[in-house]
Amino acid sequence: MSAATTEENLRGLLDRHDLAGVRRWLDAYPPHVIADELARLDRASAGVPFRLLDKDRALAVFEELEPVDQQAILAGLRDQAFHDLVEAMDPDDRARMLREAPAKVAQRVLAGLSAHERELTATLLGYPAGSVGQIMAPEVVALPGRLTAGQALHLVREAGAAAETIYTLPVVDPGRCLVGVTGLREIVLSPADRPVAELVDTDVPRVYATEPAEQAARLMRETNALALPVVDSEDRLVGLLTIDDAVEVIEAADTEDVTRQAASGPWPGHYMSVSVWRLARSRAPWLLLLIVASVLTVNVLQVFESTLESVTALALFIPLLVGTGGNAGAQAATSAVRALAVGELRGSDLPAVIWREARVGLLLGGLLALVGLTLGTVLVGGDVALVVGLSLVVICAWAATVGATMPMLAKRLRIDPAVVSAPMLTTLVDATGLIIYFLVAQAVLAL
């Protein structure tokens, strides 16, 4: 059944107040599908199907929701249902929700938790914003190195129910300092009397609780790990970064990069449930900034007004040159931002990137110059065509170089490279490209 049909069925059942039909619908779909459909509904409507779920299914669906949608669901629950739900959540999922919750909601959640769960949640919230510590799973089955495989398996059976994952098992010394990691597979398949110390991988990567979460998540992707041990400054085990949390971190970071590259801002929650006002508010500041930046282009045209008056045919090719330069710069900027995000570029690579992109720009400019020369010769004659061809070569080389350089310089200044968005870069290249065009025209046409 298609997603559109799924949504129409749930909406139709709610509109007809067919609660029996809603129950059948909920039984027919997995938690992630239900969560997606609830996120599309308004706050009042979403609460109805959620309250029809049994306790276990409700928790599974709730943990699939974004924090802003979780808050909407909680607002419609009675006290007992509210407390049962937040008590059953994993501590890292609960902390993730509370980071974005209003103070009143956070206080209500913390007040209703048991002492143990409140302590776990408070510990996670105490780490720096955006750090691994805030998203790690603090409940871990840690194996002392002195155990045998049989004893370790017994410990996993006893303590595993409270842990978020048991597939990755950290091994610690008596001071709880991390020795390495073993897996449930190794424990199960080994003879019962084999020491855990012989099964441990001591070269496994580890991350510190205060490290940026995005950096740790990308490390996890590079190492193909299901979980990474998280340690404090003294190498004591404090938790595990699990694959589901790492995927969410990377998705959130990539979403933010994409929106900023499009001269917009990220918004919380599902796109279909965000208000029109909120979407407009996320885009308006950038558009206003771009309008102000576009004044540069107007000023350039005013400065070279006499050149345009002398050869009015030059005006015909302004859109072509401006568009080409902006697109060439945007292509280079997008490549650089992506390469920075996945760790393929470092600050020391800046000279090599400048040389590489300058050559790419010259090649592209030469190719496009052939097209420009042909068009110019047919439309306005050889002299202006030569100006257009030469300008395309220089503008493409300049745009590609600037486009790749600006994100790298931004990172050196500790600014998000995605902030150097394609529209912002395009505006800059528009103005500088016109300067190049008119200077070439003055030189070739002796104006």
Can you characterise this structure?
It holds the Pfam family CBS. It is found in: Cell membrane; Membrane. The protein is mostly helical. It has helices at residues 3-15, 19-28, 31-40, 43-51, 55-64, 67-75, 79-88, 91-99, 103-111, 115-125, 149-159, 184-189, 213-223, 243-261, 276-293, 295-303, 305-310, 318-341, 350-379, 382-412, 422-445, and strands at 143-144, 168-172, 178-183, 207-208, 227-231, 237-242. The protein has three domains: 3-127, MgtE N-terminal fold (Alpha Horseshoe); 143-250, CBS-domain; 294-445, Tetracycline Repressor, domain 2. The chain has 21 helices and six strands. It has a three-stranded mixed sheet with strand order 1-2-3. The protein has a three-stranded mixed sheet with strand order 4-5-6. β1 (143-144), α11 and β2 (168-172) form a beta-alpha-beta unit. α1 (3-15) runs antiparallel to α2, α3 crosses α5 and α18 (318-341) crosses α21 (422-445). The protein is elongated.
The count of helical stretches stands at: 21
Percent of residues in beta strands? 5-15%
CATH architecture title of the largest domain: Orthogonal Bundle
Helices and strands, in N-to-C order? HHHHHHHHHHEHEEHEHEEHHHHHHHH
Q: Globular, elongated, flat, extended or rod-shaped: what is the shape?
A: elongated
How would the blueprint of this fold be written?
Elements: H1 3-15, H2 19-28, H3 31-40, H4 43-51, H5 55-64, H6 67-75, H7 79-88, H8 91-99, H9 103-111, H10 115-125, E1 143-144, H11 149-159, E2 168-172, E3 178-183, H12 184-189, E4 207-208, H13 213-223, E5 227-231, E6 237-242, H14 243-261, H15 276-293, H16 295-303, H17 305-310, H18 318-341, H19 350-379, H20 382-412, H21 422-445
Helix pairs in contact: 1-2, 3-5, 8-10, 13-14, 16-21, 18-20, 18-21, 19-20, 20-21
